[in-house]
UniProtKB/TrEMBL annotation:
<keyword id="KW-1003">Cell membrane</keyword>
<dbReference type="GO" id="GO:0022857">
    <property type="term" value="F:transmembrane transporter activity"/>
</dbReference>
<feature type="domain" description="Major facilitator superfamily (MFS) profile">
    <location>
        <begin position="15"/>
        <end position="488"/>
    </location>
</feature>
<dbReference type="InterPro" id="IPR036259">
    <property type="entry name" value="MFS_trans_sf"/>
</dbReference>
<feature type="transmembrane region" description="Helical">
    <location>
        <begin position="268"/>
        <end position="292"/>
    </location>
</feature>
<feature type="transmembrane region" description="Helical">
    <location>
        <begin position="333"/>
        <end position="350"/>
    </location>
</feature>
<keyword id="KW-0813">Transport</keyword>
<feature type="transmembrane region" description="Helical">
    <location>
        <begin position="465"/>
        <end position="483"/>
    </location>
</feature>
<dbReference type="GO" id="GO:0005886">
    <property type="term" value="C:plasma membrane"/>
</dbReference>
<dbReference type="InterPro" id="IPR011701">
    <property type="entry name" value="MFS"/>
</dbReference>
<dbReference type="InterPro" id="IPR020846">
    <property type="entry name" value="MFS_dom"/>
</dbReference>
<feature type="transmembrane region" description="Helical">
    <location>
        <begin position="111"/>
        <end position="131"/>
    </location>
</feature>
<feature type="transmembrane region" description="Helical">
    <location>
        <begin position="169"/>
        <end position="189"/>
    </location>
</feature>
<keyword id="KW-0812">Transmembrane</keyword>
<feature type="transmembrane region" description="Helical">
    <location>
        <begin position="304"/>
        <end position="321"/>
    </location>
</feature>
<feature type="transmembrane region" description="Helical">
    <location>
        <begin position="138"/>
        <end position="157"/>
    </location>
</feature>
<feature type="transmembrane region" description="Helical">
    <location>
        <begin position="232"/>
        <end position="248"/>
    </location>
</feature>
Amino acid sequence: MDQTIKQTNRPPYGILAVLMVGAFIAMLNNTLLNIALPSIMTDLKVEASTVQWLATGFMLVNGILIPATAFLIQKYSVRQLFLTAMGLFTIGTILAGFAHVFPILLAGRMIQGAGSAILMPLLMNVMLVSFPVEKRGAAMGVFGLVLMFAPSIGPTLSGWLIEHYDWRMLFHFVTPIAVIVLLLGIFLLKDKKEKIDIRLDSLSLLLSSIGFGGILYGFSSAGKKGWDSPEVYGTLIIGVISLAVFIIRQLKQDKPMLNFKIYKYPMFALSSVISMVVTMAMFSGMLLTPIYVQTIRGISPLDAGLMMLPGAIIMAIMMPITGKLFDKFGGRILAIIGLIITVVTSYYFSQLTLHTTYTHLIILYSVRMFGMSMVNMPITTNGLNQLPARFYPHGTAMNSTMSQVSGAIGTALLVTIMTNRTTTHAKEIGAAAMAHLTKQPTPAVLAEMKQQVMMKAMLEGINDAFLVTVGIAAVALILSFFIKRAKQAEDKTEIKPAGKNVAAKLAGN
């Protein structure tokens, strides 16, 4: 798809709908598995350190492939990329659904990740070239609904399926939808791609894979193995060195695989930093809340998922509204209001107790999601709006890559803080409890006391982790005051070829 061709008044809504449904089920699949992990551990007889690879492996594949999507979008047509991505996702879903041993399940999950890595940047890029700047906020608001609503309803749907069916139903449920979307793509996508003289730099791909893969693996492993593990800091060091060499190589090339020169545009650079910080803060709610609800409060998977549903509905309602508000008022005021809400609700989440009511949790989580809905998409859209059209593939690929990296860093940071602080609190609470004993406790009493100590210690560990997210969100809030409404920068190297517009090409006219 040629990035230099101007938009028309009638974007290809049918094509966008197909791409949107494909991206929706890919994003939904990301969170479906979270609540099912205990069932998978029992059924396939694997430990927690092993089963977490279903998330880590998926993230690694995304981190390795997403940087290459800028090249792929320039080289191949939307039809070719979409069919390849949905084909991989469908094959991975079928394989995982019939897995009887963990290696097959992991293989299916990573094949899914390969398809998902292509879908999201592809959809965002098509939307950027299909809508003019003044209408892009509303369009990206709908895109944000896909990005945020799908993973939000994942826990609810997963909880219901797990309580009524086997965990494999999570994949069997997605399979027919994936097949239908693949068939729709085959019949509806008709765009063609002119041959472009661009080749993939194999060394850049290798450096990118080692760099992003090493960083993602290192941070993803830190929560379990600790920061002092040679496997953790070793892969981080290798990843950072490889990434530095990769960036230097990209800056020296005329046609880089991933163009880091886009960071010379200030609003894009600022939006990228804010989005990474917000993503790290967002993971606190999605990661720590289910742990608190299920492990400490003993609430069922279905009720835990239902607790997050009102927040998901609010997110769905707000995303298109936020998009229209962005078109009218810009991203700064939305980001400031949204981040103030995020900071305040994060603080209240750091004050959880063993008796916090279910209603209180629903309201707090829903208000937090309301704040989040006003931040990510306006900031991202404002940053992308400043880029010349030929940089859209690089901007979308960069944003997706940074989202994966910041998500992994945020997850590792919060899990490590929660684990370390839980250990510290357990020693303190345990020592205080023993000091108040007047006689030697029986084994039964000692076991019950130990369980209570661990519950209170984990609660305090979760509260400490939430407190850190208050600081993270506060950093994003401070940065949001520097946001300005972006105008598309002039690109003197851009050549506008004659021919039909991109919307017409996508529609197959």
